[in-house]
Amino acid sequence: MNLIIMGPPGAGKGTQSRRLGEHLAVPVISTGEMLRDEIKRKTTLGAQAKRHMDKGELIPDSLMIGVIEERLKRSDCARGFILDGFPRTVAQADALHKMLGENGSSLEHAVSLAVPNDELLKRLSGRRTCRDCGAMYHIIFDPPTNAGLCNKCNGELYQRDDDYEDIISSRLEVYESQTSPLLDYYRGHRQLLEVDGIGGRDDVLARILKRLGISQS
Questions:
Q1: Of 49, 156, 31, 25, which Cα lies nearest the Cα of 92?
Q2: What's the whole-model pTM score?
Q3: CA angle 46, 47, 50 (to 5 degrees)
């Protein structure tokens, strides 16, 4: 099954993508993780991506399309995949449709998680990330056992540049203007499944599985 998980920053795309990937036994392709790895390794792509991410801007289409096209060629995507963070524009959606069609494949569904902006701000501004292993916590909803330290590797936790309130507001504005037209795009293709993203992780996953017609067992 080929799926997209959509939604504004902080909607829980990463969490639900990972859980859904385990349930379906397909790889989760997170553009955010791919780009942060490039930044950590100080590659040319990483430097280009960081300039845009630090401003709360979307990565240019040409950059992202090339990254995704190479990833989908890997053998682990033969049984299906879940895309988290791509596409974010209609141009990217058209490119994805074309690249899948060329391989005799197609997208089954685009799952959109709906969360109000005030809840998104609360979620993102309290988020903390481990510098060493990338594990994520929240100072209110999912705090580490020891303040400022990762439970898994004892690495330092930090607040990402794009998780400060001014950048968050910018990211949400970008989402509304550039990414939400994708809802109309996939609605028009009869591929859109809208899911309430408020509530516990298990509750949200149950809603997604129900919309996909998949058993939870």
A1: 31
A2: 0.78
A3: 80
Q: Which of 36, 127, 128, 207 is catalytic?
A: 127
Q: Which two tokens stand for residue 7?
A: 């939604």
Which residues, including other chains, have CB under 8 Å from residue 200's CB and lie 6 or more apart?
none
Specify whether 127 is catalytic: yes
d(CA 125, CA 175) in angstroms, rounded, equals: 17
Question: Is 187 among the catalytic positions?
Answer: no
Task: Supply the DSSP symbol for 57.
Answer: P
Q: Reply yes or no on whether 88 is catalytic.
A: yes
Task: Assess whether 131 carries a catalytic annotation.
Answer: no
Q: Computed over its alpha carbons, how large is the radius of gyration of the chain? A: 17
The predicted-structure confidence for 94-145, as pLDDT tens digits, reads as follows 999 999 999 889 999 999 999 998 899 888 889 899 999 989 899 988 899 9
Question: Quick one: the chain helix, strand, coil %, rounded to 5?
Answer: 50, 15, 35
Report helix angle 61-72 to 90-102, nearest 10.
30
Q: Which amino acid is at 130?
A: C
